[in-house]
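Example 3.
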Amino acid sequence: MGGLTAQEWMAVELSLRVAVVATLFSLPFGIGVAYLLARFRFPGRDILNGLVHLPLILPPVVTGYLLLVTFGRRGVVGAWLEQFGIVFAFDWTGAALAAGITAFPLMVRAIRLSIEAVDPGLEAAAATLGASPLRVFATITLPLSLPGIIAGAVLAFAKAMGEFGATITFVSNIPGQTQTLPSAIYALLQVPGAEPQAMRLIVISITVAMGALLLSEVLARRMQRRIAS
Amino acid sequence: MTLDIAIHHAFPAATLNVAFTAPAGVTALFGPSGAGKSSVANAVAGLLRPDKGHVILNGRTLFDAATWVPPHLRRIGYVFQDPRLFPHKTVRANLLYGATDSKGLDGIVDLLDIAPLLDRRPSRLSGGERQRVAIGRALLSSPRLLVMDEPLSALDSDRKAEILPYLERLARETSIPILYVSHALSEVIRLADQMALMAKGRLVGFGPPADVLSDPQSAIHLGARQAGTVIEGRVSAIEHDGLVRIETGSGPLLLAAQASTGARLRIRIMAEDVLLSRGTLEGLSALNSFPVHIRMIRPDGPMALLQLELDDGTRLLARITQRSVAGLELVPGMRVHAVIKSAALIDQS
């Protein structure tokens, strides 16, 4: 893709980095929350479920603003984290945080469905064979829900690639630092005559999203076959 | 070994209230569907936490008011109705899942004849093969007790016939006590050293199968068609006309059946197939009759269940009408003749 300018390349590279980091960091939490929701009844379960799904229905600008208030330099969590050198405000890490949080509901949903599809009878059988709850989870529940975990991760990755509203609200639109693919497209669309450039980035967006969906399908199907045969 | 249990638990639609102490060997939990047998098995294995009671295995308390040992620390092997093999693991990996090492593998593989299956996935096994692997998997976890919850009920009769001999070998060749849940009386008679008879969440009989089955108090819970007793015998000869002669403690029985000389058998005699006569019998087509005395008479609607005792102490049940009881003036202690119309062999290899 020699036709891209340095700034456009930066946006693509940044978006990939943001999406990969967002997906990898949220995956353990996604699996944990999905397992909790799928297998346990506890007080506050409905509230946890609601909180997880909130970013899906909240206007992204609200999510972004709440992140700014919480994780900004003067935010409660942000100020505390800054002591340890962790800064989210106006940095690509903030874009990753925003992307991770907006993609979280999709990830949890896919993983939860696949965990719920694992026969609890198999887990009970493993327990009677002497396996601790942790071993049951690691050797039975996790491998059997792997197709759903992969699907959830890829879906979250695609969603993170496309995150715009919360990102621009939280970390703004600074080329090379926080300008992701969607932010770059948005910026180009504000410039008269830059539509052909925007078009190239739009094609890249569609390709990455479509590629991710197809990949998740293929991986999930291959996993399913490995488990079944 | 002893398994001492008392289980009280309220389900939304039923209550479970069962207590017994089982000695070593195979203990069958027997009763109709819905009697609460599986719940008892689950409580023993730790898959159900009862409201009240206790579970004590070999002196080790697994559950009481102050104790709760989770299932993975109980060392109780469980063979479920469905084999529950792990689909993503090979047969070998399934077998070794609960084992500390692979030392016992060869012996179990031989016992259950599953050597050719070791590298396959469970989805490529037949129903009977899967259940054999599930049994092997439970055994290899070196359990102190093996719970089997209707391990044959999901199989057709051919598969049942395939697995039953393995279970018999298991009961004879391993020293692991077995709690065997079943609603099939033939399996219980073949396998069990003692049985716990359950009905509607309660224990209604406990002891060796021959005793429980010949007790009119518990037999009444088996229903009219199932009430009957079991006696043991040995095939002494095949007669010239093909009838099998079986020596029992009370005399020979002649049956039309398939058996080979020398075989030890359990013979099931249904209460409905036993007639009573006050005098000696002449001109009757039945071949088998024994002098007995009446131990107990229990009315059951227009019918009555009578417990009879042969001279060697073996007990029989007879189910006849109340009218006959009155007409023949039958009372406990009276000596009469029991005529056995038919009896079924229960194979024992």
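The mean pLDDT of chain B is 89. DSSP finds nine helices and 21 strands in chain B.
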